[in-house]
Amino acid sequence: MAPKRLWASSAETLMKILETLAKFCSVLSGILLTFITLMTCYSLIGRNTTGDTIVGDFELTGVATGAAIALFMPLCQLKKANIIVDFFTAKASEATIIQLDRLGALFMAMAFGLLAWRTYLSRSMSALTLCLIIFGAMLVLMAIRVPIAVAMFAAGTLGYLMQTGWGPYSSFLNNLAFARFASYDLSVIPLFILMGHFATQGGISKALFQFAASVMGRFKGGLAMAAVLASAAFGSICGSSVATAATITGVALPEMKRHGYSGRLSTGTLAAGGTLGILIPPSVPLVIYAILTEQNIAKLFAAAMIPGIIAMVGYMIAIAIYVRVVPGQAPEVDDNIARFSLAALGGIAPIAAVFIIVFGGIYGGYFTPTEGAGVGAASTFVAALLKREINWAKFKTCFYATAESSA
User: Is 341 helix (H, G, I), strand (E, B) or coil?
Assistant: First the structure.
């Protein structure tokens, strides 16, 4: 037993060291994002006043973005925040999942071990056969819980090496791997996500839900409608549906339970409302789609606004019908909910100001979407400071959460 205890203690110590290093890397990446934000704001002010800008600010932003994304990845991997396919293992036991994870690691080792026979394999099979093997290997890796990104990287690496060899592959990684991350356009993604986390840690989301509840509280099912309205409003400064759902759930779910809403209605409403985070601009999937298809990000944001509003109104109408058709899901009109007031309206002034500054500037032609993301992150941070609800611990939490989401 002594060797096992020693091994367990050593493993635990190693994990603590790795977690500390990963968090340190995340803080460094957050500092780089802060540098991008400040540089963007300085360039905008100089360009619109004296006409001076920072020489090479596009290149600096791209390099800083690449370094920030690379520094994000250790914490993402350590926290197991990578996306996996759990369709086949959703009901499996914990022991089975552990064995599948080990099998995935073994399968990857075997796949890379086959590269020793790259020349023989590539000469003895057709291109179609090689393609089917690579695609099949990727699907098998996904099925046994290997993270999607890792499975795609492993399959692509296997195919590339079998076709070209280690020399061209090493050159490819040396020249293009970092270049894929060091993109000026990609910097908009972590900046918009950071903006949303600043709003969360700064208490802006709580004020947002309180205002929505004061407006919708007079109706039956009003808190559920308020959760949808708050999700849509929060989605306007956060490009992630996961962050939107988690943030609004943290402030809305306790209130809905306290006022007697059923668990089915509460969780269903918050899950549906969270999807508005990727539909109402800024939207991370829209940014990625625009980069891949070389489309205008601002035009895609404008095109998504109307469908987002329609979805929000549709959800609210569905809630209103559901609570009247299905009894016991929501209480009657609750007189204990605070009514609309100027104080509640003042609570959403920061988020309204950020939205107007960011999207007014983008559509007014004052700055690009990437610059708008930097301005939005800076504006949201200032708003959080003015509310006096953010400290150094919450500041680091914003960096950790941004790291997990972005990487």
Answer: coil
